[in-house]
Amino acid sequence: MKLVSRNQYRHAPPIIGIAGWKKSGKTTLTVRLVEEFTRRGLKVATVKHAHHAFDIDDGETDSARHRRAGARQVAVVSGRRWAIVTELDGAPEPNFEEVIASLEPADLIIVEGYKSAAIPKIEARRAASITKRPLADEDPTVIAIASDGATDGKGLPVFSLDDIAGVADLIDRTIGPLEGRVTAAAAEATHALDTAHACLPTAELSDAAVWPDMAREMQHLKPDEDR
Q1: For residue 141, what are the CA distances in angstroms to 29, 109, 121, 154?
Q2: N or C: fewer beta carbons within 10 Å in the chain?
Q3: Could you report how far apart the first and last alpha carbons of the chain are, in Å?
Q4: Whole-model pTM?
Q5: What integer pLDDT is reported at residue 41 of this predicted model?
Q6: CB 180, CB 106: distance < 8 Å
């Protein structure tokens, strides 16, 4: 299997996968790697593949009620975060390339799941949950193993599941060098915008100046009455 390069995805940053069988520790490893790379100043994006139905919101939230009413897409927006939930309604799920292309710029994408994706992966293993053949035995995209016990890597680097810095360093050496370019670029762009805004003359724009067509139409409308 040929490993994909970042150039095969539109504007994609370096990508690393975290794979493993159920209860292998891959979610914990993913979360701790996000924390580690964020601490190093990188902007990290993640992708999680779910093998079962899931709900972003449930119960009686307004957005859940919108979806149950039949809305195919629901956008939920606040001052802290926003999300768009899309109902597939029997259509196939987006492929891996489409998911990657939909993400905003980042310094690193960490993918949990997608075992069949042709991306470099760290295999997570827990001795208590080994019920199937290790992924590395058949998957040439596995570049290292993170385990909670003694493991024969068969030539691959083996790390403790708790050696987050060691795993992060290997990822950096393998698909890096990883640098906080997106984070730095965003800060620089924000500073440039702030500077530009500070240099602009202050002016008040009337509705007619901003939306002249709408303003003209509004002049012909009478104030609303109870209907």
Answers
A1: 18, 16, 6, 14
A2: C
A3: 67
A4: 0.75
A5: 97
A6: no
Q: Which residues contact 156 (CB under 8 A, 6 or more apart)?
A: 136, 142, 143, 144, 145
Q: What is the pLDDT of residue 225?
A: 47
The confidence score (pLDDT) of residue 45 equals: 97
Q: Which residues of the chain have pLDDT under 70?
A: 1-12, 183-227
